[in-house]
Amino acid sequence: MAVWLVHKSEGITSFEALEAVRPAGKSCHGGSLDPFATGLLPVLIGKGVHVFHALHELPKTYLATVAWGSETDNLDLHGKVIATGDPSFTAPPALPQGWHPQVPPEYSNKRIKGERAWKLAREGKPVELPPERVYLHEARWLSRDQLRVTVRGGFYVRALARDLGRANGARAHLSALHREQIGPWRCPPPGEIIKLSLEEALDWLPTRELTDAEVGALRKKQPLEPKPLKSAKWGLPPGFPPLSFSRGVHLGKTVALFRGEKHFAWL
Question: Does the pTM exceed 0.90?
Answer without folding.
Answer: yes
